[in-house]
Design brief:
Helix content is 52%, strand content 15%. It is built from 11 helices and 14 strands. The longest helix has 53 residues, at 189-241. The two termini are 54 Å apart.
């Protein structure tokens, strides 16, 4: 373990604030909670908070509306009663009612009349609430007169509440200079009962909302994670049995896309396994022929040079006789079979790398690669003629893989060309075309010439493993290119390899080169 890491970790923990430590702790705890439980809790909290906030907002709104209505009614009654207060000449104040005006005074209502000095002149007591005394704010209303008023909530010693308003009394015709005020207090018992019932209803609604939220959270968690459960079961089934059977996809949401991606991965994995099985089967089939031939030839040579009896020799027979020419032919045949086997093994190793090469790409001039490949093939087939026309084409890639692919194209053309034939090589705009003067490719073989181990009926009698053109296609795909096969104007085979790049070394010309290739 690195000591620097262990030394820095406690120091970083010490520098964390309370909020960061709490968040880290919550994250650590939640990482051990099942996802279904987290989704259920999240839905419960979200819906529960929404219902609770809605209930609180409704309760506050109704409460304010009730109190506002109570204040309006109380103000109207106080103003109406204040108009009936009359001041007589002897300064003895009493509450009089003019005519038959209906001024309701209930048992839960108390009326107090006092002057600007705070002296109470009249009280109409209530049987529900205790006696109410004016406070300095009420006296200030009497002193100000006009339209002043004062609302307040009175809390008595026994816990009862009353809502009170103080309004000025209009000047009387008997004593116009006297200023008085009227205090009207009304019990809030009925209002408190209404608000209590409303609070109870809000609490019950909140609890019911949380219960519904919990049920909804469980339902949402089960329904939402059902595709994940199916995906988990499919993964466990694949790990247990190795059966890469795709799972059923329902819907078009994100989880359906995840299942589709998982199926794509299974399909790619199944295709890769199928390619591996076919490669092993085809490789075993192709290796059997040179190994059998080598075994036969070596067995014959061992009979000649071993001086003893081989397992195939007849008992009692003398050592077989073989001429020097036959012996040389056998040795050359063994050497050829060994070379063919080496080439086959190399081709198999090359094709076993399904992924792109991990080495960093480097600038490559495809024209130079083609020239080097032509020089190598010309030494192998000195009787062939090469008609070459090359234009520069630059790209980023693996020079060794590209040279191997171009060499395979030229070897294929040389194999099918007559003894003094001509191989035509053209490179323009990233398209390399190699044509020969051989018999050409049959129509039924055209779509398969770049497949692994595919050999036409005519090619089965000729040397080769059927992997050379498959290596060409793999190199083209690894470099973002493609391959194609057709019949040349001369009647032979025409094989093409296109690679994306640019006609100059300037990287800004990439787009023009890609457009030309497409």
């Amino acid at each position: 373990m690195n000591p620097l890491i262990t030394a820095e970790h406690p120091e970083s923990e010490e520098h964390l604030g309370p909020y960061e430590r709490l968040r880290a702790k919550i994250t650590e705890v939640m990482s051990h909670v099942p996802l279904r439980t987290r989704i259920t809790a999240l839905v419960m909290v979200a819906v529960g908070l929404s219902v609770a906030l809605a209930s609180i907002a409704g309760w506050v709104t109704v409460r304010n509306q009730i109190l506002s209505q109570m204040d309006t009614t109380l103000s109207s009654h106080a103003t109406q009663i204040a108009k009936e207060v009359q001041i007589q000449e002897d300064n003895q104040t009493k509450l009089q009612v003019k005519g038959n005006l209906d001024v309701p005074l209930y048992t839960d209502t108390e009326v107090v009349v006092f002057d600007s000095d705070g002296v109470i002149n009249y009280i109409a007591p209530s049987t529900v609430i205790p006696s109410v005394q004016p406070i300095p704010a009420d006296v200030a209303v009497a002193q100000a007169g006009g339209t002043a008023s004062n609302f307040r909530t009175i809390v008595f010693g026994d816990g009862t509440k009353a809502r009170a308003i103080t309004v000025p009394v209009p000047p009387s015709e008997y004593s116009p200079g006297t200023r008085q005020a009227l205090l009207l207090a009304q019990s809030m018992h009925d209002t408190q009962q209404t608000l209590s019932r409303l609070s109870l209803v809000s609490i019950l609604v909140g609890i019911a909302g949380i219960a519904v939220a919990g049920s909804a959270g469980i339902t949402v968690g089960r329904a939402g994670l059902r595709p994940v459960d199916r995906l988990t079961e499919a993964t466990e089934y694949v790990a247990r049995t190795g059966d890469l059977r795709p799972i059923e996809v329902q819907g078009t949401d994100e989880l359906a896309r995840l299942a589709t991606s998982f199926n794509s991965m299974l399909t790619a994995l199944a295709r890769s396994q199928d390619h591996q099985r076919r490669l092993i089967a085809d490789a075993g089939h192709e290796l059997r022929t040179p190994l059998t031939s080598m075994r036969t030839n070596i067995d014959l040579l061992s009979q000649v040079f071993g001086g003893g009896e081989s397992e195939h020799a007849a008992p009692g027979s003398g050592p077989p006789r073989i001429s020097d020419a036959d012996r040389s032919e056998l040795i050359a045949d063994v050497r050829a079979q060994m070379e063919e086997l080496s080439v086959l093994v190399g081709d198999l190793v090359e094709l076993s790398r399904d992924a792109k090469p991990q080495a960093a790409p480097e600038p490559v001039n495809l024209g130079d690669v083609v020239r080097q490949a032509v020089d190598r093939v010309r030494r192998r087939a000195p009787g062939l003629k090469f008609d070459i026309q090359l234009q520069p084409w630059f790209l980023e890639g693996d020079p060794a893989a590209l040279e191997r692919a171009v060499t395979n194209l030229l070897d294929n053309a040389g194999k099918w060309s007559p003894e003094d034939g001509t191989v035509t090589v053209r490179l323009a705009d990233g398209l390399l075309q190699v044509s020969d003067q051989g018999p050409g490719i049959a129509e039924e073989d055209m779509p398969h010439v770049f497949e692994r181990f595919y050999r036409s009926t005519e090619a089965r009698t000729m040397p080769g493993s059927g992997l050379g053109l498959a290596i060409v296609r793999q190199a083209a795909e690894n470099h973002g290119g493609r391959v194609a096969a057709a019949r040349a104007p001369s009647g032979g085979a025409l094989l093409g390899l296109w690679l994306p790049g640019r006609p100059t070394e300037d990287a800004d010309s990439t787009s023009s080169g890609s457009a030309a290739g497409s």
